[in-house]
Design goal:
about 300 residues; alpha/beta; 11 helices; about 10% strand
């Protein structure tokens, strides 16, 4: 197998079916804003959003103080707790090329971000392979996930600042849940690799709900299990569909802008966007929330 360093991804307009286009448009428009030897593979570095964050002229823009008292934090997994999109991208790119998708031309990072990232595999079966037998498409997705898990076992790393945030959550006695559209084996593997198996009280899988993200069902289920109101919880999310789901569930969403452009996350409804859990705007918002809770406690 060729090493990825030797592969050139062409920058061109990919040919893909009208069905895929419609599926993507449906995914992004459901909700409006609501307030090989795998160990030796060199995974390509996907570009992060390069747009500078807006000047923080108004600190209230990044406030979470309305959640006082904060009781829970809900996390997406892929692209939020860990930068796993490059691994998904590699697996899809290699396997789609192998089956002759788009005439055998490798998919670009832009195509992956716009048409694959954040979508549930069942939807991708229809979107990517409208002319395939459904059983064959599902087998492709299962094989892709097997490849992803092998890659993740070797190369997955947490997003910067994750351990610091987990410690803060522990110290404040907050409830927490992981909420994902990923298959359960993926979700459980990633949480285990990150050392968070004992951290999360609840793991909600999208295809085990009536509807998955971008519908609010997975986040609403997490709130029910945690017995927490959406008025006292917020979400960390990296995908457009995930942001829409969190907003539709009535919670503020902090966007993780590792891959998706900040402007798209903002348009989807994020309260603000960070690039990792060390970013100062997040800690400023958490410190403000702490101070408000202290004032409230004194007043009562």
């Amino acid at each position: 197998m060729l090493s990825l360093a030797s592969l050139q991804l062409p920058h061109h307009h990919l040919l893909f079916s009208d069905h895929l286009t419609r599926a993507h448009l449906q995914k992004t428009a459901i909700y409006t804003q609501n307030r090989c030897d795998l160990a030796t593979i060199s995974i390509p570095r996907m570009s992060s959003s390069s747009s500078p964050y807006p000047t923080e002229r108004d600190s209230r823009k990044y406030s979470l103080a309305c959640l006082t008292p904060l009781q829970a934090i809900l996390f997406d997994i892929d692209g939020t707790l860990c930068d796993s999109d490059p691994l998904h991208y590699y697996a899809f790119r290699e396997m789609l090329q192998e089956v002759g998708f788009n005439g055998g031309v490798p998919i670009t990072e832009e195509f992956f971000s716009n048409n694959i990232s954040g979508m549930h595999n069942e939807n991708l079966c229809h979107a990517l392979f409208p002319d395939w037998d459904l059983q064959r498409a599902r087998k492709f997705m299962d094989d892709k996930e097997d490849m992803f898990r092998r890659l993740a076992s070797e190369q997955l790393k947490p997003v910067k600042g994750l351990q610091k945030l987990c410690k803060w959550i522990d110290e404040h006695g907050l409830k927490r849940a992981a909420v994902t559209n990923a298959p359960r084996p993926n979700a459980e593997l990633l949480i285990s690799i990150l050392g968070l198996s004992d951290f999360f009280e609840v793991l909600v899988i999208g295809n085990e709900c009536e509807q998955q993200k971008p519908f609010p069902d997975p986040y609403l289920k997490a709130l029910r299990v945690l017995e927490v109101s959406n008025k006292h919880a917020f979400v960390f999310e990296d995908s457009i569909s995930g942001v829409k789901a969190g907003v539709a569930a009535g919670m503020p969403v902090v966007g993780m802008g590792l891959r998706n452009p900040e402007n798209l996350l903002t348009e989807a409804g994020t309260s603000f966007v960070i690039k990792d859990f060390d970013e100062q705007k997040l800690w400023t918002a958490l410190e403000e929330l702490e101070k408000k809770e202290e004032v409230t406690e004194v007043a009562t």
